[in-house]
Amino acid sequence: MSGGLLALLDDVAALAKVAAASIDDATGMAAKASAKAAGIVIDDTAVTPRYVVGFAADRELPIVGKIAYGSLKNKLIFLLPAALILSAFAPWAITPLLMAGGVFLCFEGYVKAHEWLSGVKVEETAAAVTATSAKELEDVRVASAIRTDLILSAEIMAISLATVSDASFAMQAFALAVVAVLVTAAVYGLVAAIVKADDLGVRLVRRGTGFSKAVGSALVHGMPPLLNTLSIV
After folding, report:
1. What are the residue boundaries of the structural domains of the chain, listed by start?
2. pLDDT of 129-139, one tens digit each?
3. pTM for this structure?
4. Cα–Cα distances in angstroms (integers) from residue 52 to residues 10, 23, 98, 191, 204, in the given order
């Protein structure tokens, strides 16, 4: 019996080693896929802060949290299964989807450039214009941000899928899930830091001395131009 138990333990150890190696491989694939999608991640980070402009300071982080939750749902519930189905039954469609995403991003860039050069901005949605309360406007802005995120997240997942297209189904699923979580955490963690940087600056100006006070002043004066720049790019 002891010999059989030892053999079983050896088998378990061997399986654990294989599983660990597989996880390492999938993690490496996820890291590579995340790097390939860096350009879209930067675009996603630049787009989001404008949705919290104009709200009370105590609502900024909750709004970012709602958008982050919606973004994670977009990736894990809608886009991840769609990507896996696409990989299994229509892998030829990945490249056309990437091209379509690139065309959309080019169009978005054209609209931003036109707004900046002409001084004429695209109007907000009718729902945002007619919102009668801060809560209603917040709900409209969050919904709009999540819809925009769906498009950018689709491009991120398509790029990631193209990176791991030669892997097994399980590896693809794991790698895409890791990409979804890491990208969402990175993007919205950075967005939260951006939108609260001016509050940190005010605190440093009031309570700091010397260098910390200078840093606080730089944050207070630097964040409005940064947010304005992000709204353009």
Report:
1. 2-232
2. 555 677 888 88
3. 0.77
4. 56, 38, 29, 10, 23
